[in-house]
């Protein structure tokens, strides 16, 4: 985070004016000059840069909706701040109306400074004066009378940036988590699982049950990110502790949306943990699955010992608890505590390698599911086929995938029919497939 002195700021202003003049001479069209309204010597930082990109996206998306061609686009990232120059084929009055709307439509917009220039290079005035960040009075009056100190303005700016970026990140995480759930259920064929072709080994749920459930969970995933962000300075397990109550409420929302059917209980834990990890991490780490899974592991550290060690037969209520006592299987807690090794080593690489080879989502996702099933002790498989049956099936799939990492659709469909006959369903592996999808989507987030 660099500072800029007065001379640098004035030089940047002169350069900006010269560039505006050159663009007016070259194109003879209106233009938008976009900077950030930041008090004090620190004119650029990671947060300011991200806010500028959000504003840039809002501007360009709005121009696209107006069918307004952008003939020239230029961005600068300097110690004196971020700058954008956009030559637009749109009447200046319409352009100014859009600029004012972007500046006033949100708290973050109050930090945007969008000047609109006519074709001759003269600036259009605002119909109404800008409001002060602190008191809401005309900003020019407060600046002239120095009503507020620079530290006060800087503190308010930091609040606006933090709040806006948290809201944006929470929305992004929720959208990607729900998309991951939708991709998981849409991946077809999947042995024993609900997909677009059939209900697998399930009689109490179908494709639409999963759509209802996934649609109900977006607010929960957004809340997980916010809790991760707000507990980021505390030990990682504290974040998981804060996620427990929202997780129970999310389960209630799921059951309401499905008429009492458990479609996504495992995914609520798995993707909720991932969203909490995103909140704890700097945004620059979102494209790194290793960092995300390591943070999730730190959050889940000690879960097995706290929640399963010392458990007695009488206290074993859930299938996971009973399997721990009977077979020593740690289930999803153990996977999380270890940093989801099946996802990191098998599921995600196979998914992404398949997509890179040009395979469809169905082909790459189906192969990833089989790889996850081959390398995890899926408790759903244990519940339906026993621990020994699960181990034998995992060994069979390993041998199959060694010969053919991306099985043919017909072969997976045959396995699907077999699982339905044997009443098998790898629901735990399906949750991990959703995590693979989410980690893949995160690589596309800027």
Task: Explain what this protein looks like in three dimensions.
This protein is α+β, with helices and mostly antiparallel strands and about 450 residues long. It folds into two domains: about 5-150, Alpha-Beta Plaits (2-Layer Sandwich); about 160-440, no CATH class. It has helices at about 5-25, 45-65, 90-105, 140-145, 150-185, 205-215, 220-230, 235-260, 265-280, 290-300, 305, 320-325, 330-335, 340-355, 360-375, 380-385, 385-405, 410-420, 425-440; strands at about 30-35, 70-80, 80-90, 110-115. A hairpin with a 2-residue loop joins β2 and β3 (about 80-90). It is elongated.
Count of discrete domains: 2
Helix content: 55-70%
Strands side by side in the biggest sheet: 2-3-1-4
Q: Mind telling me the C-alpha Rg?
A: 27 Å
Mean pLDDT: 94
| Assembly classification | single chain
What are the secondary-structure elements, in order, as H or E?
HEHEEHEHHHHHHHHHHHHHHHH
Q: State the separation between the terminal residues, measured CA to CA.
A: 20 Å
Task: Give a count of the beta strands, DSSP E runs of length 2 or more.
Answer: 4
Categorize the overall geometry: elongated
- Structural class from helices and strands? alpha+beta
Percentage of residues in strands: 5-15%
What composes the largest sheet? 4 strands, antiparallel
Number of continuous helical runs: 19
Low-confidence stretches: none
Element layout with pairings:
Blueprint: H1 6-27, E1 31-36, H2 46-65, E2 70-78, E3 81-88, H3 92-104, E4 112-117, H4 139-145, H5 150-186, H6 207-216, H7 218-230, H8 236-258, H9 265-280, H10 289-300, H11 303-307, H12 319-327, H13 331-337, H14 341-356, H15 361-374, H16 379-385, H17 387-403, H18 409-422, H19 427-442
